[in-house]
């Protein structure tokens, strides 16, 4: 009888198995979509644990918290089957895994004192970061320049690129923002001011989590202390890491022993955030002896017709390392290319097909609609609500983006870090009678080392007198270690409720959101952990204002293509497969960007297992960046599906059925002069 040890590895093919059983030397698994890369990671982790590696000494780095949790769940399940009780340890141990950013945040907090950070630092999301950048921009007078100085968003994007790609400003501008090259001497001044204000306020932005981590690893004693913790580090979706992340890995595992990374260069879709496909291509040669490379050739996800079409799309890319895959799932429908008149019709079509799919036995949860940008699903969402089809949206408007949620978090963040001006600014102005000026003077009081104690004896503006005592009491209870978690959350919500009712007409759904936030909060051990995790990997907006049921077990997935990475669904619908959308107008600036758009379509297509519909609205609303202003466009099929590969698709036109012809209504044969009759009444 086979021993239990070989049992789970029997699920793998020979190449996957080689990767799962590979010894400690550096390992790269590079292969196309659906070839079992993630599955191989799961089995490798189980294998490591079986051979006696302490699961606490295994670090899994993935692209999202969701992905990390999914791998940990599968490892746990398998381990439970194989090893019984021990699995509890496994689950706990792997809980330390997650995204690079989350792991970085944890390490920085742990070593804060030693590296000169305030241990209660708060983290700015992109919106806060852009706002802080804007303040610096304003203070230096760059918002008044005559020639166009980059917007706050552009400033942040440039800054972020410089940091993540470890590049100099001039190269970044030349490559990605040539229109701003004229500001090459001013931008460093702005970025310097931005960094200083972050430090003064004890806040870190996303990029800092990697940057500080990487710089910390340059100190030998820190590097030794941190590297010593992990015997094995496994990274999924390695094609979407940036140079800083590669630097961190190299510092953790200089000789590559215990390092295993998996990815697919054809699915690299985060260059706009400075990810570089060079990481995966240069990985093997980065070690001496070089890393073992395992490639996988068989696809287990999709039918041959879907795979062939996806292969054809990516086959037109000028450069690619991974090879075409084959599958044993030979039969299946050709992927469909469906032309519809406009986006409304597109929504009708997709809703129709989803319901047909359900009738035919595919639950909603196995059907997904993918799109380039979050707002593209708008018309479809309306249609889904109208037809009562529950859905959940990923990668769009985050829960965190809602004003009321940001309000509550601002209060929590400010008491966590009284120097965090953006948080305080927002929190204070929730009160009646506190405007920007009054808020700013309060913030000056809490910026010092006394923190919230600085508020004692402060006399607020007369108009704020009514709200001030309750606020002071709240802040008092939350300061320092607070009232305990999640009690703090409840205190803030209770305090906020009357303000919310005053500030928003639609208070009810917002209150429901806050109660949901409270439930999420209860899942965290501390205020600090809650704030960190929520900022780094915010939960997606689950509710829809129109009132779609939240906790249905069967719902359609609506997702941006970026957020669907690594996922698979039986039926996949891709919206707006037209030029101007995929590729987007923004994406055709240079050929690198164009290639990224092609890979994006490839990622979308390869999510499908059984059926794939690419929908092309003939009239498509686009933002013409170049010409400024929005307009309707008569759209053409995406250039990534040229005529030559059309035979791999089934092309169709579809339009909603016109309303049934009005049946002729019976009409009287004769005529009557009612006017004469009316007059006759008075004669
Ligand atoms: P992506 O590039 O999209 O992230 P991937 O390479 O990580 O894909 P997985 O998600 O691991 O691929 O696997 C795709 C599907 O194929 C999953 O449903 C998985 O269970 C299945 N699969 C992978 N390998 C095997 C195998 N050896 N036997 C049976 N099914 C397999
Ligand atoms: Mg995967």
Automatic annotation (TrEMBL):
Protein EC: 5.6.2.4
Group of enzyme by EC: isomerase
Stretches assigned to the UvrD-like helicase C-terminal domain: 304-566
Occurrences of domain UvrD-like helicase ATP-binding (ranges): 10-303
UniProt entry keywords in alphabetical sequence: ATP-binding, Helicase, Hydrolase, Isomerase, Nucleotide-binding
Catalytic activity field: Couples ATP hydrolysis with the unwinding of duplex DNA by translocating in the 3'-5' direction; ATP + H2O = ADP + phosphate + H(+)
Keyword flag Coiled coil: no
Cited CDD domains: DEXQc_UvrD
Single GO MF descriptor: 3'-5' DNA helicase activity
InterPro entries for this protein: DExx_box_DNA_helicase_dom_sf, DNA_helicase_UvrD-like_C, DNA_helicase_UvrD/REP, P-loop_NTPase, UvrD-like_ATP-bd
Binding site for ATP: 31-38
Pfam families: UvrD-helicase (PF00580), UvrD_C (PF13361)
Keyword Isomerase in annotation: yes
Record-linked Gene3D superfamilies: 1.10.10.160, P-loop containing nucleotide triphosphate hydrolases, PCRA, domain 4
GO BP field: recombinational repair
Cellular component terms per the entry's GO annotation: cytosol
Domain of life: Bacteria
Family indicated by similarity: Belongs to the helicase family. UvrD subfamily.
Protein's name in the database: DNA 3'-5' helicase
Organismal lineage: Bacteria, Pseudomonadati, Pseudomonadota, Alphaproteobacteria, Rhodospirillales
């Amino acid at each position: 009888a086979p021993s239990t040890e070989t049992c789970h590895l029997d699920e793998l093919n020979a190449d996957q198995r080689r990767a799962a059983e590979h010894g400690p030397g550096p390992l790269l698994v590079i292969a196309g979509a659906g070839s079992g890369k993630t599955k191989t990671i799961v089995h490798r982790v189980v294998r490591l644990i079986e051979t006696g590696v302490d699961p606490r000494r295994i670090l899994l780095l993935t692209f999202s918290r969701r992905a990390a949790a999914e791998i940990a769940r599968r490892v746990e399940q398998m381990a439970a089957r194989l090893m019984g009780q021990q699995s509890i340890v496994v689950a706990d141990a792997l809980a330390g895994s997650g995204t690079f950013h989350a792991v970085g945040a944890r390490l920085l907090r742990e070593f804060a004192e030693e590296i000169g950070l305030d241990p209660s630092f708060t983290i700015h999301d992109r919106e806060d970061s852009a706002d802080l950048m804007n303040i610096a921009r304003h203070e230096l007078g760059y918002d008044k320049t005559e020639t166009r100085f980059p917007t706050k968003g552009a400033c942040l994007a440039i800054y972020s690129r410089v940091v993540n790609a470890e590049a100099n400003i001039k190269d970044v501008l030349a490559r990605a923002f040539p229109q701003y090259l004229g500001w090459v001497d001013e931008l460093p001044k702005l970025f310097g001011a931005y960094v200083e204000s972050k430090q003064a306020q004890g806040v870190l932005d996303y990029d800092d989590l990697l940057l500080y981590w990487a710089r910390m690893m340059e100190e030998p004693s820190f590097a030794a202390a941190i590297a010593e913790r992990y015997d094995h580090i496994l990274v999924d979706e390695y094609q979407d890491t940036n140079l800083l992340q590669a630097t961190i890995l190299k510092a953790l595992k200089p000789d590559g022993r215990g390092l295993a990374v998996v990815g697919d260069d054809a699915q690299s879709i985060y260059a706009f955030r400075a990810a570089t496909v060079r990481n995966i291509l240069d990985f093997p040669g980065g070690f001496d002896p070089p890393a073992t490379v395992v490639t996988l050739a068989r696809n287990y996800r999709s039918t041959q017709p879907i795979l062939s079409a996806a292969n054809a799309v990516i086959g037109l890319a000028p450069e690619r390392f991974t090879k075409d895959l084959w599958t044993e799932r030979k039969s299946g429908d050709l992927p469909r290319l469906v032309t519809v008149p406009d986006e409304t019709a597109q929504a009708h079509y997709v809703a129709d097909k989803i319901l047909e799919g359900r009738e035919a036995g595919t639950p909603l949860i196995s059907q997904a609609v993918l799109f380039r940008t979050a707002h593209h699903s708008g018309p479809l969402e309306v249609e889904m609500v109208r037809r009562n089809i529950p859905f959940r949206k990923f990668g769009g408007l985050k829960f965190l983006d809602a004003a009321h949620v940001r309000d509550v978090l601002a209060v929590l963040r400010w008491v966590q870090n009284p120097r965090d001006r953006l948080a305080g600014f927002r929190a204070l102005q929730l009160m009646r009678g506190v405007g920007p000026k009054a808020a700013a003077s309060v913030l000056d009081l809490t910026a010092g080392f006394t923190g919230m104690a600085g508020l004692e004896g402060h006399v607020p503006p007369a108009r704020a007198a009514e709200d001030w005592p309750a606020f002071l009491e709240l802040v008092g209870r939350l300061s320092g270690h607070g009232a305990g978690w999640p009690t703090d959350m409840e205190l803030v919500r209770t305090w906020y409720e009357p303000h919310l009712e005053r500030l928003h007409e639609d208070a009810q759904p917002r209150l429901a959101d806050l109660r949901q936030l409270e439930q999420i909060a209860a899942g965290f051990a501390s205020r600090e952990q809650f704030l960190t995790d929520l900022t780094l990997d915010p939960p997606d907006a689950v509710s829809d204002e129109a009132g779609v049921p939240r906790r249905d077990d069967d719902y359609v997935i609506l997702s941006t293509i970026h957020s669907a990475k690594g996922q698979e669904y039986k039926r996949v619908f891709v919206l707006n497969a037209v030029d101007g959308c995929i590729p987007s107008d923004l994406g055709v600036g240079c050929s690198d960007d164009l290639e990224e758009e092609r890979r994006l379509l490839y990622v979308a297509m390869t999510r499908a297992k059984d059926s794939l519909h690419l929908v092309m609205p003939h009239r498509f609303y686009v933002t013409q960046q170049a010409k400024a202003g929005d307009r309707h466009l008569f759209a053409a099929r995406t250039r990534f599906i040229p005529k030559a590969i059309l035979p791999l698709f089934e092309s169709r036109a579809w339009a909603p059925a016109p309303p049934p012809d009005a049946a002729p209504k019976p009409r009287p044969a004769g005529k009557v002069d009612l006017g004469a009759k009316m007059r006759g009444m008075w004669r």
